[in-house]
Design goal:
heterodimer, A: mainly alpha, 79% helix, 0% strand, B: Rossmann fold, 6-stranded mixed sheet, 4-stranded antiparallel sheet, 10 strands, globular, transport (chain A), transmembrane (chain A), transmembrane helix (chain A)
Chain lengths: 257, 261
């Protein structure tokens, strides 16, 4: 193999699918071959059967819906707060100097560590779940958006000024459109992280959601259901990632080479 | 009367990390007549770009002042069009939207500004590319768009900072002819910075030669070649004689600059 040599589109898909196949094969070999006790790891077929009964008999679709709504709700709240703050920080250096140290500190506070506190404050209802997602995403979003907005090429800003742009139009007509594709990419990334927080939030003090199902299944030693839940999360992540990429390419045709 | 007056304009860059402050430009005086095409020629790092950026308002002078139509210049503005050496089209705007950028800033209604922009795209030979994004254009096309974008604003003076510096020789020659053609038709006051001697003579009516750092004006030579100038003029005896003289002037400075660095 030559370093950095590209692969064709078809081969790329083939390789990608092949790894999934290898993974499932190894899993089947370990479980059907009896190398792993069924108590600890269900085989793929059991997993599918359990998943089917979850969906048909136990209303798992509702749990999936709840989890999606929590992730999206908390994430949208975080975006509403982070977008204006990030833009202000990226565009205006005094704002950056004022907020950056605190936000940098706050983003290292683990969202999951706030769960006991949030339960005290907001109970175990939806507000608490949304707050976990919000805390987990908002500081990351602010910092990354600020970097994207502030990372504009200086000569583009100079060019705008020589064309008679005012300070506010430099922000509106240069800094924002310039950062837009990167901000969309940041949304895609942070939404992925938000998924890990929601499950943690649902593991503790919850009566619905994928995380709740997973804790219930643990009590019943039903590893098939647990694995099915985890795979559903992975699939939703994959789909949302794909959608984001497709939308970004449609919205910003000028960005990619 | 003078369109632009540069009065004792100098630039000193402040000291960094306890070093000495650097003087980039000794106080320079120059006056530019209306509709004149002046090329500023000098070796790299002679402060010619610094001078142009001060006129454009992108940098502040350490001393002296600049008057445009009698009014002092402070900060960048639409009355001075600027074309950069680097490609500075806005990547998210099409060619026509790029050209119309300044017109929108002025509040020209959409229909009118798109008509004007389309007209300018035509004058730089890009009628077929108005809906292209910059990444779909060659370097030469991008710089033509940048020139159209600056001129669509109808500035009092056009400032060009080595606009063809990154282009290959053939494209560069074509761009020089195009720019000269526009100037001959539109009658604009132009200040053009370059380190290419042939380019300086071919497009300019007056060549200002700058010395090695710290920059100062070393010679001010009128280019007495007729207009319109076909590219064949580059081989005429008058052109060659002028070139020889400038090669000598510049060589001394380049040698000095090489010794300093």
């Amino acid at each position: 193999m030559k370093p950095l040599q590209p692969v064709s589109g078809g081969a790329r898909i083939g390789y990608g699918v092949a790894f999934f196949a290898v993974f499932v094969l190894a899993w089947s070999a370990a479980t059907f071959g009896g190398y792993v006790q069924r108590l600890f790891l269900a085989d793929p077929l059991t997993m599918l059967r359990e998943g089917y009964s979850l969906l048909v008999q136990y209303g798992f679709a509702f749990d999936i819906g709840m989890t999606i709504w929590r992730v999206v709700g908390g994430f949208v709240l975080a975006v509403i707060v982070a977008l204006p703050l990030g833009i202000l920080m990226g565009a205006y250096k005094p704002v950056e100097a004022f907020l950056e140290p605190f936000v940098s500190f706050a983003r290292y506070l683990p969202a999951s560590a706030f769960i006991p506190l949030l339960i005290l404050w907001a109970g175990i209802g939806e507000a608490q779940k949304l707050l976990v997602i919000f805390i987990g995403s908002v500081f990351q979003l602010i910092l990354m958006i600020a970097v994207a907005v502030g990372g504009v090429r200086r000569d583009l800003v100079d060019a705008a000024y020589t064309l008679g742009a005012s300070d506010s139009s430099v922000v509106r007509r240069v800094l924002l459109p310039n950062a837009a594709p990167e901000i969309a990419e940041i949304f895609r990334l942070v939404l992925g992280w938000a998924w890990t927080y929601v499950i943690v939030a649902e593991l503790i003090g919850s009566s619905s959601g994928i995380g709740h199902m997973i804790t219930d299944s643990q009590a019943l030693l039903n590893t098939g259901q647990i694995i099915f839940g985890i795979i559903v999360i992975g699939l939703i992540g994959l789909v949302s990632d794909f959608l984001f990429k497709a939308v970004n390419q449609r919205l910003f045709p000028w960005a990619k080479a | 009367m003078s369109k632009l007056i540069i009065e004792n304009v100098g630039k000193v860059f402040p000291a960094q990390r306890g070093g000495q402050p650097t003087r980039a430009l000794t106080p320079t005086t120059l006056s530019v007549a209306d509709n004149d095409f002046i090329t500023i020629l000098g070796p790299s790092g002679c402060g010619k770009s610094t001078l142009l950026r001060i006129i454009g308002g992108l940098e502040t002078a350490s001393e002296g002042r600049i008057l445009l139509d009698g009014a002092p210049v402070s900060g960048p503005g639409a009355d001075r069009g600027f074309v950069f050496q680097s490609y500075t089209l806005f990547p998210w705007l099409t060619v026509i939207e790029n050209i119309a950028f300044g017109l929108r800033e002025k509040g020209v209604p959409e229909r009118e500004r798109l008509d004007l922009a389309r007209d300018w795209a035509g004058r730089v030979g890009l009628s077929a590319f108005v809906d292209h994004f910059p990444k779909q254009l060659s370097g030469g096309m991008q710089q033509r768009t940048a020139i159209a974008r600056a001129l669509a604003n109808d500035p009092k003076i056009l400032l060009l900072d080595e606009p063809f510096g990154a282009l290959d020789n053939q494209t560069r020659a074509l761009m020089q002819e195009m720019l000269l053609g526009i100037w001959e038709r539109e009658q604009k006051t132009v200040l053009f910075v370059t380190h290419d001697i042939e380019e300086a003579i071919f497009v300019g009516s007056r060549v200002v030669v700058m010395s090695a750092r710290p920059g100062r004006i070393k010679a001010d030579i009128t280019v007495d070649l007729p207009h319109p100038r076909p590219y064949t003029i580059k081989t005429s005896p008058e052109f060659v004689a002028l070139k020889e003289r400038l090669v000598e002037e510049i060589r001394v400075e380049a040698v000095l600059a090489a010794e300093v660095h």
